[in-house]
Amino acid sequence: QGLAGRLVELLSHPNPSVQTPALRTVGNVVTGDDLQTQVVLNARALPSLAALLNSPKRSIRKETCWTLSNITAGNCDQIDAVIQANIIPQLVQLLSTAEFDIRKEAAWAISNATSGGTPQQIKHLVHRGCIPPLCDLLNTQDSKIIMVALEGLENILKVGDAEAKQTGSAENAMATIVEDAMGLTKIEDLQGHENHDIYQKSVKILRNYFSAEAEDQEVAPSVDGQVYSFGGGPGSSQFDFSGSLQ
């Protein structure tokens, strides 16, 4: 705990040459198990990480997103800590407008949160605007990030589907938001992608959450052999956000 506290202090050092190794060390700690991540959170790292998302140094913004992606890969209480620190709007902003290498790390952070988060937490992410920038990533040339975005969208659509069934609605409000963000068109286009995993995921999403039928292809596209590298891994009624976390 003492070492973690000192590392967190160094995150606020005015010199980037001190911030950078401290951030790298904190990031490596939170790649461990939930207990290790909790030690960092108990040392009040999140306010310092939130500040670093605004760093003028691009590499620090990128590495901060990577660190946060490993925290959102933790348990739902740790995801909640990120939400309560009001970091999600910053991540969504970076996911929308930052340089591509930073957008990739922000995508991991959001997608990991949809994977381990509760339905209420996932609704909060949607309320903060995560769907359009995730959809924007679907026409990039980076197969790994397309999969990260698809997995995040699938987790969100699953929550919308459960909500529709619970309320007796005929429409998945999350699917409507995805469609409005041009996500449906992009997912349909991905049925022709050369990456087998992307092909399968897009077909699955279309069949499960959209009335449009997925294309049947007897020969699936070939696998592109790339492996995941940097990161944590990994909508008739209006959707009710009234219970969303603030």
Total E-strand runs = 0
User: Pairing-aware structural class of the strands and helices?
Assistant: mainly alpha
Low-confidence stretches: 217-246
Strand content: under 5%
> How many helical stretches?
14
The major pleated sheet works out as: none
Distance between the termini: 29 Å
Shape: globular
Tell me the Rg in angstroms: 18 Å
The topology string of helices and strands comes to: HHHHHHHHHHHHHH
State mean pLDDT (0 to 100 scale): 89
Helix content estimate: 55-70%
Could you explain how this protein is built, in words?
The chain has 246 residues and is mainly alpha-helical. The protein is 65% helix and 0% strand. Helix 5 (58-71) packs parallel to helix 8 and helix 7 (88-97) packs across helix 8. It starts with a helix and ends in a 37-residue tail after the last helix. Residues 217-246 have low confidence and may be disordered.
